Amino acid sequence: MYKMWTQAGSLMASTMFIYTMFMRFFPSPLQARVRRYTNKFTSFVYPYIRIRFHEFTGERLMKSEAYNAIQTYLSEHSSQRASKLKAEAIKVKDTRTPLMLSMDDNEEIIEEFQGVKVWWGSYKTTSKTQSFPWNSSSDEKRYYKLTFHKHYRSLITDSYLKHVLEEAKAIEMKNRQLKLYTNSKTRWSHVVFEHPATFETLAMKPKEKECIINDLVKFKSGKTYYAKIGKAWKRGYLLYGPPGTGKSTMVAAMANFMNYDVYDLELTAVKDNSDLRKLLINTSSKSIMVIEDIDCSLDLTGQRKKRKEKVEGREGKDSRKRGDEDDDDDDRGSKVTLSGLLNVIDGIWSACGGERIMVFTTNFVEKLDPALIRRGRMDKHIELSYCCYEAFKVLAQNYLGLESHQLFPKIEKLLEETKMTPADVAENLMPKSLDEEVDTCLHNLIQALERSKVDLEKKKAETERKQSNVQKTSENHGEGMEENGVIN
């Protein structure tokens, strides 16, 4: 035994010596040729195939999507089998642990797929570059290595890797952290989206709520259908109604229900149509783009009319001066046009990416250009109006935990006789102190509804009085003209 180990050690030492001399004295072309034949011999003897998935790839060294997917997949499946793990803090809703465990460097696990064993390994290489003793840096390159028997090449490359990518996508969606984006020039910056609104807590009629949910579910599963009809996989929603009726809350509920990121587009911060297109390209799929209060964002509704007036006004000298002043004002502000916005919503550029929802909100739908909100651009129009009794019951459950109360019939009657937004109803229902009871909150709401009813009756009476005065003035004016012989 001792003699056998001595011979093995001597053989290894001789091999290393020959390899060192070979690498030092033989030219590079000859080394490359020898390596090529050595690899052929090794592949003939060695029955396994190895695939490497590097962390960075491409000319611009972008992070590899395949590496990210494998990392997600192994993080879910390796924590129970690997002996060395690394932990990373995460912040995702509905998770049992705030830590994500994944394979540590130089660790390997065995997995079985359809009766075939595969080996996954996590590795890293470190190359040091040193130009001066005081200035050195290290370049770490991480990669995953998949090893399997060459007899199962087709099974692994055609089925197993596809399974890994699909599984990683499902895991990512389950653990996805939603983001809220805002624009600055042509770039997006984001924060974590943590709005708690859901359709269960949304104050509106159950039938209308169910209709919206069904529409969203149909859209989410409609990839094949949209491709069949030759239309970009997107959908537009117009939310309109008085302030305080829950338009922004509706957007948050849609994002949480669909598990989509939210892009809050501020049109006044966009320089021109070209920058608007760049922002659109930089949005991801599975997202909601929101333009809130679009009637106030830019003067899009009257631009065509103003442009026509400028052209006609150039006939006169004074009109030309006024037109020049208007042009200077336009240079200082946003040059986004209605046609540019329409092209992003429903033109060729709208097909860049898929599974997107576009939402407009406005308090005054009548101010918007009909071309902006026509069907096909804003596919579904949703009116969010004043609080009804069914919406009140949702708010009572949310704020007070009540399903019924003896004061509910009185509140129902008052809600039919007056106009109060869900935001105002919620403010009156919210307890203002620790010792404030349920009855007190309901009485506060009743008093507010009664005051609102009185104010509404006063406004109605004032409007009727003004109309009566106008009618009398018109009649008196007509009689006076008749007496003076103006009317025969």
UniProtKB/TrEMBL annotation:
Gene3D superfamilies to which the protein is assigned, alphabetical:
6.10.280.40, P-loop containing nucleotide triphosphate hydrolases
Signal sequence span is: none
What PANTHER family does the record tag this protein with? BCS1 AAA-TYPE ATPASE
All copies of domain AAA+ ATPase, residue ranges: 233-388
Reaction equations catalysed: ATP + H2O = ADP + phosphate + H(+)
Q: Basic and acidic residues bias: where?
A: 309-324, 457-467
Q: Which GO terms describe its molecular function?
A: ATP binding; ATP hydrolysis activity
Q: This chain belongs to which protein, by name?
A: AAA-ATPase ASD, mitochondrial
> Membrane as a keyword?
yes
Q: What is its EC number?
A: 3.6.1.3
Chain intervals for the UniProt region annotation (Disordered): 307-333, 457-488
Supply the alphabetized keyword list. Answer: ATP-binding, Hydrolase, Magnesium, Membrane, Nucleotide-binding, Transmembrane, Transmembrane helix
Q: Locate the transmembrane regions by residue number.
A: 6-26
What cofactors are annotated for this protein?
A: Mg(2+)
Question: Which classification does the entry list for the species?
Answer: Eukaryota, Viridiplantae, Streptophyta, Embryophyta, Tracheophyta
SMART domains for the chain: AAA
What is the species of this protein? Glycine soja (Wild soybean)
Q: Which GO terms describe its biological process?
A: response to stress
